[in-house]
Amino acid sequence: MRAFIAPIALAALLSPRPALALERELVLSPRVGFAGSTGPVGGPGATVELGAHYGLNDAFSLYAVGGYHLAFPDDPRGPRHGATLAAGAVYALDVLRIVPYVGVGVRGDLMLGPRDRWITPAAEARVGLRWLLKRGFALSFEGAYAFPFVGRDLVADLVTVTVGVSFLRDL
Questions:
Q1: Tens place of pLDDT for every residue, the chain, 171 residues?
Q2: What's the Rg (C-alpha) of the chain?
Q3: 15 is a domain residue
Q4: Which residues span the domain enclosing 47?
Q5: Is 140:126 a contact under the CB 8 Å cutoff?
Q6: Which of 103, 127, 99 is nearest to 20 (CA)?
């Protein structure tokens, strides 16, 4: 009997359910994770983000993300601080309890380095996965890559990988 419990539980966890319809759904997701960037003032570090998604229909959502990241470049004067605001659209596959999504958007970063301060507009690609644990709550995993248009001589590629929770509410 015990030999059947684990496969049945796994099948129930991953089994298809009726789509939970992202349409007119607001999702708020606080997340923490890793941030990294290349360039003379780039480096590894930590990030905290607050993301929001709003479902336009059962597949497309608008997103907005605000965040803070701290990087540790090879500069003896200290770390680099950054604030991020991003917005765009994502496509989600809302069929299972695990909801993958991909999207593109625009982003602006305010960078405060040991020697420099600048604003970096960028284009970004974002991928994520939301694991629905119950109707109003999920675990979220998200990654973003940003290509800055300004200040590439200081910080080139920007990457974040985060994990957190999501709170879902129908409007």
A1: 555 555 554 544 554 444 455 788 899 999 999 999 888 888 899 999 999 999 999 889 999 999 999 998 877 778 889 999 999 999 998 777 888 999 999 999 998 887 788 898 999 999 999 999 988 899 999 999 999 998 888 888 999 999 999 999 988
A2: 18
A3: no
A4: 20-170
A5: no
A6: 99
Sequence-ordered list of residues with C-beta below 8 angstroms from that of 142, at least 6 positions apart, any chain: 29, 31, 49, 51, 126, 127, 128, 129, 160, 161, 162, 163, 164
CATH code of residue 149: 2.40.160.20
Q: Are 116 and 107 in contact (CB under 8 A)?
A: no
Quick check: 59 and 90 in contact, CB under 8 A? no
Please give the single-letter amino acid code of residue 167.
F
Give pTM, 2 decimals.
0.81
Tokens of 55: 């479902």
Q: With respect to residue 57, please indicate whether it lies within any of the assigned structural domains.
A: yes
The distance of Cα 22 from the centroid of its chain, to the nearest Å, equals: 17
Question: With contact defined as beta carbons under 8 Å apart, do 82 and 59 qualify?
Answer: no
